[in-house]
Design a protein that fits this description.
The chain is of the alpha/beta class. The protein contains 10 helices and 9 strands.
Length: about 250
């Protein structure tokens, strides 16, 4: 369903893919189709599946271990902590600042991703990593979509899972450019809260300023910011809520 917004028209299918459509696409995939290193143009290649399972409370490597137990056929594991963020000791950078473009190019290139590829990302309940991957990839100019409902949606329709850790993919050298989605500095976000609407998508206790057991940093809340994280309205936990419901939420 398409919906008008203040910045134009938003197409649900532009950002999400339904499990039935993914199953159809995988069923039509030609196993003999050439890959990038065999000379295929990226526009001629099937969409790449990236498993982005990650939780804030995970120990190192836990997401990859769950990937090895079972993942969608042909999916490649994308490590959020190593590829989709920058590690910084400066508290002003926040917990997970955007990666530098070289880190992103190297990490995606190791998975065989080209700049012209279509990428489909997914995760599991308790994780918002697929949403993070979708945003970072779009910010860097890669067309990415999220599997609506994540791994559980695939299992619920009888989709097969593959076990085992991934093989080594043919390395590519994508040339990415940042800035395809807008960003704000902390000062700009604070100013936005004063003159408009600034939404906080963190867990409610973080919004309220409650320190979590796994955090060494005190949470902060900008004055004038509203919380916006309704249960069940995440495409990585359950099928995304109807557009009408989202509209009512934001109108409130």
């Amino acid at each position: 369903m398409d919906r008008p917004t203040t910045v134009g028209w938003v197409s649900r299918s532009e950002h999400l893919i339904h499990v039935a459509d993914l199953r159809q696409a995988l069923a039509q995939r030609d196993p003999k189709a050439p890959s990038a290193h065999e000379g295929a143009a990226s526009g001629d290649r099937p969409a790449l599946l990236l498993d982005v399972r990650w939780r804030l409370t995970d120990t190192a490597g836990a997401g990859r271990q769950r990937y090895a137990v079972g993942h969608l056929p042909g999916a490649r594991f994308l490590d959020l902590a190593q590829v989709l963020t920058t590690h910084s000791d400066d508290p002003r950078d926040g917990r997970h600042p955007l990666p530098d473009i070289q880190t992103l190019e190297h990490g995606l290139g190791a998975l065989g991703v080209e700049e012209g590829d279509e990428v489909i990302v997914y995760d599991e309940p308790g994780s918002f990593a697929a949403a993070r991957a979708w945003w970072v990839l779009r910010w860097a100019g890669i067309r990415a979509r999220v599997l609506d409902g994540g791994l559980p949606a695939w299992v619920d329709v009888g989709g097969d899972l593959e076990a085992g850790d991934e093989v080594s993919w043919a390395v590519t050298a994508p040339k990415l450019t940042p800035g395809h989605l807008p960003t704000l500095t902390a000062d700009e976000a604070a100013a936005q809260a004063g003159r408009g609407v600034l939404l906080d998508a963190r867990a409610p206790q973080r919004y309220r300023g409650v320190r979590s057991s796994h955090s060494t940093r005190a949470p902060a809340m900008s004055p004038g910011r509203s919380t916006c994280r309704p249960p069940g309205c995440s495409p990585t936990v359950a099928p995304c809520c109807p557009m009408a419901s989202c509209g009512e939420l934001f109108a409130a």
